[in-house]
Amino acid sequence: MFTGCTFKYNAFFGENVSINVTYPLNENGSRDMLSVPLATDNIHYAEILKQVADGDITIAEAD
Amino acid sequence: MAKVKITGHASGSGVLTITAPNTSTNRTVTLPDSTGTLLDTTSGLDATKLSGNLPALSGASLTNIPPQGRKNIIINGDFRTNQYGLTASTVAVTNGAFNIDRAKNYLVGLSGTVALGDAEAVNGTYETPLKYTAGSTASGRIGLYQTVEDYHLGETLTASAWVKSDNANARIVAYDGSTTTSSNTHTGGGGWELLKVTFSQRTNASQLYIWTAIISATVGSVSVASGDYIFITKFQCERGSVATEFERLTNAEQLSLCQRYYYLHATKEGGAHPIGSAAFQSTNFADFNLHFPTTMRTKPTLQYVSGTDYYTVYANDQLDHFSDFATRNTSPNAAQIYTNGGMGTGIAAGHAGVCYTRNVNAFMAFTAEL
Is there a contact between A21 and A33 (Cβ–Cβ < 8 Å)? Predict the structure, then answer.
């Protein structure tokens, strides 16, 4: 689901509110992007949590 | 003159009495001009004689009537709702991804493609089936499955689909988190065949997955050759133990059901597609609220394509292009999103504007799939 992706929290007034998922570049130079809410029944967030727990990915802190 | 003859029975001992009703009107009862026995309260009706126009019948005492109302718990089983934009052109299959609403690709051990097939007659109606084709020869699995949100705990369900395949392991398999139940298999003869399976959901079932795929009876791999195909349409699951005729919904009904799980907000097609009204919080930051047409299953993920100046906001009589969004607050009913960097033409805080796409590859969608 997240092959080659990078992950970064998105914060609002200092509180993390979503995770931006950046996919590798497409052939035309664009990128597929996700902005994932922190909701455990969201399948993207559940998969991110699983992969973090498995040590497969890390999530960068928000700017 | 025809005559009336009353004959006794040589063996019986009872006395039959013909009794007049309490009436003062003369009446004539005409006997049938055929051989047989007159109906009484213990007689059976000859079904072949039930013809012509029936009188109005009350259903108040009918029993064992099949469940009424919407019956198909598979959504988009005829693949007519197509927010993902799948066409007759083949695209590579990614396991677990969607190329058409509510049909999750299932691909293990193989490469493969998916496309919409040509419209053709399938058991009396014209359908546009979903077509999966293997791109390699191996032990593997290819097709689709749907995760059903309502498990229907403790109920007997029947899944069915019309399938065309050249592989004799094309089948339907239901899985409730513990038990798999397989349908009959396709003959592999290349024609349309009805596959169906009746199964019971445990009272503590944790899920309901239903595959229609080239797959084993236990969701394992089978022998697949490059070029093997499976066409699928009229995918249905209903309460009870009978596979009935496919339930056709209107386009509006089916789209609304699909939008609980996936909502395409701005298409990938050319031209400017509106995204929403924007409010500038600063010279390089605008945000806006989007409301979904249907309450989604959960807080959805925002999907979009990022590209240089793919999007723009028109405000204070000038355009401010940008490439990225992010979500702030999201609910199943709406999303509060904002431009995530890339702005800066000097539109001041407090201005309002309109946001829209400006590239053929730009698009925005929300997904709350299972």
Answer: yes
